[in-house]
């Protein structure tokens, strides 16, 4: 079957069906690890191949790379419901979380969910020398744990180890009541479920998982009010108001919007990210969520686990026996925090559920 053409305009509604989107992948059968590393589409592969060939011919151009970055910035902004001026770019979750952590007032309190991914934990623990206090509580207790002394609550919208969805509405309500800033990591959410970044003071997303972009393409969205509290600790030429006038000192004139938090991009990765982001902008993400969670629930039914309506399903596997069974059957899964972990995405279907269940049966 000939793949449907990928539309790259700014769609107000979905323009690709899930069936059409599936034709953009060259593989995916038995790949249950989008939560670890997403798969590229044929469009991302083609874009990166063409870029590498242009580089080899000496035809790469810094200004054209900059145009790609700005298109991807605008595309991601559209995907998560903010304007491009609220999006900063970078390469790693920990770096962006570190920017926020470095801006926390001396002696302030941060509340985190216990067991969250280290990139959303370590940057805040590293501020202990300034008297910053980090309180870690169970995810279910996060909203109730905020007080008027809490400066920031930081959490992943979907927990990496378990796939559990945070009750972001309750957390945001508690944050409003206590005048607490909110930082949400959407890395394990964006791409398989709708994400509205505008409801948080700041969000972080590394797009190499569910969005299928090359590793090294990350986004930081920030409200104007919260941006005023942050220090551009990683400021370089790419954070300048005029990029090409910011290549040398001694003066510094940073961008007035979120670009002042930009980190210089790894150009080839952004070439691959453009078709990846465009694909998910062209989809009904509620339909993607229903597809992925439906497969997750089918696996839970087969394993005798409660239905969770999650794209990531994990269960205790301290000795790694179940993960070894999945691997021996030729499936790609992962193990985290003493648990076996599988993930279902666009390129998976009911046959993948059957393969996993067959592998796990005694």
TrEMBL record:
Domain (Aminotransferase class V) ranges: 61-303
Signal peptide: none
Keyword Nucleotide-binding annotated: no
GO MF annotation terms: transaminase activity
Keyword list, A-Z: Aminotransferase, Transferase
Database matches in InterPro entries: Aminotrans_V_dom (IPR000192), PyrdxlP-dep_Trfase (IPR015424), PyrdxlP-dep_Trfase_major (IPR015421), PyrdxlP-dep_Trfase_small (IPR015422)
The keyword Lipoprotein belongs to this UniProt entry's keyword annotation: no
Pfam families reported in the protein's UniProt record: Aminotran_5
Record's protein name: Aminotransferase class V-fold PLP-dependent enzyme
Species this chain originates from: Cryobacterium luteum
Organism lineage: Bacteria, Bacillati, Actinomycetota, Actinomycetes, Micrococcales
């Amino acid at each position: 079957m000939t793949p449907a053409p990928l539309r790259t305009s700014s769609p107000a509604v979905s323009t690709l069906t899930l069936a059409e989107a599936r034709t953009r992948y060259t593989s995916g059968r038995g790949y249950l690890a989008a939560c670890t590393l997403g798969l590229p589409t044929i469009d991302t592969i083609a874009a990166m191949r063409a870029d590498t060939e242009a580089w080899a011919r000496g035809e790469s151009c810094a200004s054209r790379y900059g145009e790609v970055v700005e298109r991807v910035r605008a595309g991601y902004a559209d995907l998560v419901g903010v304007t491009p001026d609220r999006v900063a770019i970078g390469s790693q979750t920990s770096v962006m979380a570190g920017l926020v952590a470095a801006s926390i007032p001396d002696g302030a309190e941060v509340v985190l969910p216990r067991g969250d991914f280290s990139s959303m934990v370590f940057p805040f623990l590293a501020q202990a020398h300034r008297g910053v206090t980090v309180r870690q509580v169970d995810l279910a207790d996060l909203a109730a744990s905020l007080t008027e002394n809490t400066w920031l609550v930081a959490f992943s919208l979907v927990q990496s180890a378990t796939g559990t969805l945070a009750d972001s509405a309750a957390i945001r309500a508690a944050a409003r009541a206590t005048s607490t800033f909110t930082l949400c990591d959407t890395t394990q959410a964006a791409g398989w479920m709708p994400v509205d970044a505008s409801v948080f003071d700041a969000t972080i997303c590394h797009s190499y998982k569910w969005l299928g972009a090359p590793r090294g393409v990350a986004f930081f969205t920030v409200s104007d009010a919260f941006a005023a509290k942050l220090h551009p600790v990683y400021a370089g030429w790419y954070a300048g108001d005029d990029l090409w006038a910011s290549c040398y000192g001694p003066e510094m004139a940073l961008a007035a919007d979120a670009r002042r938090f930009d980190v210089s991009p790894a150009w080839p990765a952004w070439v691959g990210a453009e078709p990846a982001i465009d694909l998910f902008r062209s989809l009904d993400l509620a339909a993607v969520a229903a597809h992925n969670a439906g497969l997750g629930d089918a696996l839970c039914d087969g394993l005798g686990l409660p239905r969770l309506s999650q794209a990531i399903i994990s269960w205790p596997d301290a000795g790694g026996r179940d993960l070894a069974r999945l691997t021996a059957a030729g499936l790609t899964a992962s193990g985290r925090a003493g648990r076996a972990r599988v993930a279902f995405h666009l390129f998976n279907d009911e046959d993948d559920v059957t393969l996993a269940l067959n592998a796990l049966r005694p």
